[in-house]
Amino acid sequence: MAKSQNRARRRKSITYLWIAALAIVTVFLIYKEMTALLYILATLGVTAILLVVANTDLSRGEVGSGDSRPTS
Questions:
Q1: CA distance 2 to 61
Q2: Stated pTM of the model
Q3: Do 13 and 40 fall within a single domain?
Q4: How far apart are the first and last CA of the chain?
Q5: What is the pLDDT of residues 24-47, one digit of tens each?
């Protein structure tokens, strides 16, 4: 169990580092008044999230459709 706890702790640490880095970049772009770049990055981020969600739903649907075959 120690390995799984260390792995989970490492993942949390990496997540917090990503959050901090993105917050710093966002504040920097607002400070330098680069809102056009901020809008582009926000649009790309939302698009990436939508693609991840779409692929997750599709992969679950494919697995579920294979289980509905008749057993006889």
A1: 34
A2: 0.62
A3: no
A4: 42
A5: 999 999 999 999 999 999 999 999
Q: Write the single-letter amino acid at 2.
A: A
In a domain, 72, yes or no: no
Model confidence pLDDT, tens digit, residues 7-28: 989 999 999 999 999 999 999 9
Residue 35 makes CB contacts below 8 A (sequence gap 6+) with: 29
Retrieve residue 66's tokens: 């294979």
Contact in structure between 29 and 38 (CB atoms under 8 Å):
yes
Structure tokens given for 63: 């697995």
* Same domain assignment for residues 28 and 41: no
Please tell me the total count of domains within the chain: 2
